[in-house]
Known about the structure:
The chain folds into 3 domains: 68 residues, Serine Threonine Protein Phosphatase 5, Tetratricopeptide repeat, CATH 1.25.40; 106 residues, Vacuolar protein sorting-associated protein vta1 (Serine Threonine Protein Phosphatase 5, Tetratricopeptide repeat, Alpha Horseshoe), CATH 1.25.40; 56 residues, Single alpha-helices involved in coiled-coils or other helix-helix interfaces. Helices cover 61% and strands 2% of the residues. A two-stranded parallel ribbon has the order 1-2. The chain is globular, with a radius of gyration of 20 Å. Its main location: membrane.
Amino acid sequence: MCRLPEAYKSLKPFLKIAEDNAKCNVAVEYWCLRYVYEKALTIDTTSPECKSFICFLMSYLSKLERDNKKDNCFCNKDAAQKYLKRVALRFFQKADLLDRSRRFTIDVAKFYITAANLINVLSFFGDLDNSLIEARKYGRWRGAYLFNIFNDLDYPLPAPEEVNESLEKVRFHGDTTEWDSFYDTYDVFLSGVEIAVPLNYSEIPDDGVSADVQLEEALERFADFNEAFKCGTSAMSELRDQNFADAIFSLENALELMQKYKRM
């Protein structure tokens, strides 16, 4: 994918989902890119960098369509909408299950945010029902709350069990008590980043469009820095045990994670 113009920075979270799914779920990749393409056309189509990006994206979308022309999720919008809804709710319900089972990790926050962004993509097909709108608001709220908790070295409050009827329809319904309480620990923090989070998700205005780019960039850095730290710690342990091949592998993983921050 070519470099994202600054004018399209608000679309970065949707490109990230497309990139993450490029090798494992091309239908999700395609519709996230279609969403980006349509939104980009409403932001800027005149500057050279935006023109170049739009042309590249249009060409890549055409390639995906040619390569997957027999896939129902490409040629049938109703099928695509139903499929993307299942994927979005799968992320949301996985986060809800782990959260309400008190399995607190940074992945739970990421699942919530991904679900909220995929629900945004679903708006490409038409108006969202109330349950999806509530899930988007709740996912943004709970994801931001958990990130702040991890970043502040605090312990999360349990997820609310009583919510409105629309949200209850799409929450996980099953056993949420099978695990003991678990709180992952982190070693690298970004104390300069603070995301404002209201006490209740219903207080979040639902603008229907924007993703919180600041939150998502901070969340990604937080996860990457801590994973790189773990890889470095593993490498030191492996060197002490003279497991040189494993040490090299761990260091290479850490380096790969940190390459994107080289010019920060």
